[in-house]
Amino acid sequence: MNELLTKLAECVEFGKINLASPYPPQMKGQEGADEITRQALEEGINPQDILSLGLMPGMERIGVKFRENKVFVPQVLMSAKAMSTAMIHLKPHFLSGAAKQKGTFIIGTVLGDLHDIGKNLVAMMVEGNGYKVIDLGTDVGSDKFIAALKENPGAVVGLSALLTTTMASMEKITKEIKDALPEALVTIGGAPVNKEFCSKIGADNYSPDPQGVVEFLNTKIA
Amino acid sequence: MIREISYSLSELTIDVKYLSSMLGFPEGDLPEPFGEYVAQAIQEAESLCDIRGAFCVSENCKFSTNNNHILVEGLEFGVGKTVAKELRNATSVAFFICTAGERISSRSQELLSGDDPVLGYVFDLLGSIIVESATDLLQADIQRMAFSEGLQITNRYSPGYCKWNVADQHKLFSFFPTNCCGIRLTDSALMHPIKSVSGIIGLGADVSFRDYTCDLCNQVDCFQRSHRRTI
Questions:
Q1: Test mutation, A138, A164, A172, chain B, max B CBs within 10 A
Q2: Is the domain A104-220 a CATH 3.40.50.280 member?
Q3: How do residues B8-57 score in pLDDT, each as one tens digit?
Q4: Which partner from A152, B155, B158, B189 sits 20 to 30 angstroms from B225, CA to CA?
Q5: Searching chain B, which residue's CA lies closest to the CA of residue A116?
Q6: Rounded CA gap, A36 and B122, in Å?
Q7: Hey, what CATH class is A3-96 in?
Q8: ipTM over 0.85
């Protein structure tokens, strides 16, 4: 594989944003995702390859490390920042059709809940793995999820909750989505929910970590 | 009668080691630049916080026979079996609200969705620590008042935990004037600013305070539970 893409994957995995960034200490003084992505484009590397062979493997590696408790939220956020910095250079190529994302993922924290760190982590990880992400924010009711699904046919919905008391809201939203759009796929996550709850409310997937959501999407829409 | 109190950041206990552990790193092992982020956030928080709390006490409280509800001033609170059990020997209850203010939350949100998500995350955790620490002081005020009358207090319990329906926030907030301490409720009973806490404390001669309450609650990923696990 092209050496630049290997370096780019490392930048994302270890959260090296750009040359000026002091993080991670072992890469201090080295170019980051910003410079390497620009250089890759200048050298004529296909934007799709930059995404698929450079950025996504790096994001997948950090996702697996997070699942295994080898890294923590701040390090994932650094990786996500490196990824999003690189994506700024790739965005025009997505718009022109020269590069394509795998599909669309709609995410929100359910009505009655304002917690969004977990939701944001999932959104960053999914985006970093090549999907377009529509983040509806927090305290979101079924009407907004359904409207977003109608605007983006084939998208998958992710519902997040932190409070035990908002599990009922998650159940109601899942039911209303399924009633309005029976083919829509719903994945759920958050501290109070589990696989059994997922089955009970008729959702299609439960993931205890962001990487699990990526894996679900890869099996369903990639 | 409602008692309203303001706190300065310097009055609170902000444990940097605890904040580090909340970030996920083992105690004393905070790699750079995360230590700098923590220092920056604590320094900035001084000017960002508007820490305020309030409480009121009602002696007009009754417990339902099914043990899941309490009645205060004629309003029924579905606190759930666990909280009702802890409160049942109380002869009065104190409702409280407390906040770290709007600006620390908005600063966190701005950074999380913008240039510096890591610093935004640090502010988010710091905001939680600040409001919990301020609520400790508010609870200590309630405890002093109870002790002066020869009473004990229970732990504090909040809507949204231990199966106490968060919708009861509207009833709880009806005991305070609109926008008290700058806190307002959404229709879905969520507090703004986000870094706010509300709840109830039981007072009475025969109530007791538990050193550890996490076993009462099924919220496995709770802020308080992870705190206690690290100390």
A1: A164
A2: yes
A3: 999 998 888 888 888 988 776 788 888 899 999 999 999 999 999 999 99
A4: B189
A5: B109
A6: 28
A7: mainly alpha
A8: no
Number of domains in chain B: 1
- Residue B157 belongs to what domain range? 2-230
Q: Pick left, alpha or beta for residue A221 (phi over 0 → left; psi -120 to 50 → alpha; otherwise beta).
A: alpha
How many angstroms separate the CA atoms of A127 and A124, rounded? 5
What are the extents of the domains in chain A? 3-96, 104-220
pLDDT band at A112 (very low <50, low <70, confident <90, very high): confident
What does each C-alpha distance from B78 to B27, B167, B203 come to in angstroms? 39, 9, 19
Which residues in chain A are closer than 8 Å to B37, comparing Cβ atoms? 74
For residue B221, which residues of chain A lie inside 8 Å, CB to CB?
162, 191-192
CB B38 within 8 A of CB B16: yes
Flag if A112 and B163 touch (Cβ within 8 Å).
no
Predicted confidence (pLDDT) per residue in A155-179, tens digit: 999 999 887 777 889 999 999 999 9
